[in-house]
Amino acid sequence: MQAKSKARHERYLAVAMQLFAEHGFVGASTDEIVARAGGSKATLYSLFPTKESLVTGLMDQLAAAMNRSTPEPALQSLPLREALTRIGLDALRGVTSERAVTLLRLALGEYNRFPELSATLWKHGPAITYANFRAFLKLRQKRGELDVDDTQLAAEHFFGSIVGHLQWKVAMGICKPPTPAEQKRRVVAAVKTFLARYAV
C-alpha cells in the first residue's frame, strides 16, 4: 500500500472508531466518516466496501498492535515463563484497551440487527489469539517443556485466569482498565498457576 493510500486508510479507521463510539454502528454514517476524514465516498468504498469492513479493519489494527511487541520468533526463543508473561501482558493490555472495549460494546449492542459484527469481532480478534497460542503451546510441548492434552482448553485456562471478568467490568464502566502494576500482578499469578498445571 502506497504511503498516501495507507495514510488515508488509517485516517478512515480512526474516524470510524470515533463515530462508532459516539453513535454506534447504525448511527455512524459513511457520509459523516467522509466529512470528517476528507476524501470522497468513492475513495472510502475503494478501501472499505462496507461498514462491516471498517470493523474488520479496526480489529486487524488491534490484533497487530497486540502482537507488534512480541513477534513469534522472539517469543519462541524466550524462556517459557518469560514468554508466557509477555503473551499475557499483551493480551490483557489489548482486551482492556479503549478500542477493544468500544468494539465489544458495539458488537453486543448491535447483535440483534447485525449479528455478523460479533462473528467478525471473534474471527479477527480472539480466534487469532487462540490460534497463535495453540501453536506456541504445541512447539513448547515438542521441546518437552509442557504436557498439554487439549491446547484449546489450556489456552482458555491461561487467558481466562488473566482476563476473567475484567474486560466486561471495564466495558460496563464498573472499573477502569488495570494499571501496569495491576496488569503485572494478574499475569504473574496466571503464569504461575498455568505452569503448575502444565509444565513438565
What attributes does this structure have?
single chain; 200 residues; Arc Repressor Mutant, subunit A; Tetracycline Repressor, domain 2
Can you give a write-up of this model?
With 200 residues, the protein is mainly α. It has helices at 3-27, 30-37, 41-47, 51-68, 72-77, 80-95, 98-109, 115-123, 126-142, 151-163, 166-171, 180-198. The protein folds into two domains: 1-49, Orthogonal Bundle (Arc Repressor Mutant, subunit A); 52-198, Tetracycline Repressor, domain 2. The protein is 78% helix and 0% strand. Helix 4 (51-68) packs antiparallel against helix 6 (80-95). The longest helix is centred in the first third of the chain and has 25 residues, at 3-27. The chain is elongated, with a radius of gyration of 19 Å. The N and C termini lie far apart (45 Å).
- CATH C-level of the largest domain: Mainly Alpha
Helix content: over 70%
Write down the overall mean pLDDT.
89
Number of helices: 12
Q: What's the shape?
A: elongated
**What is the H-and-E element order?**
HHHHHHHHHHHH
Which CATH architecture of the largest domain would you pick?
Answer: Orthogonal Bundle
Radius of gyration: 19 Å
Distance between the termini: 45 Å
Low-pLDDT segments: none
CATH topology of the largest domain: Tetracycline Repressor, domain 2
The major sheet is characterized as:
none
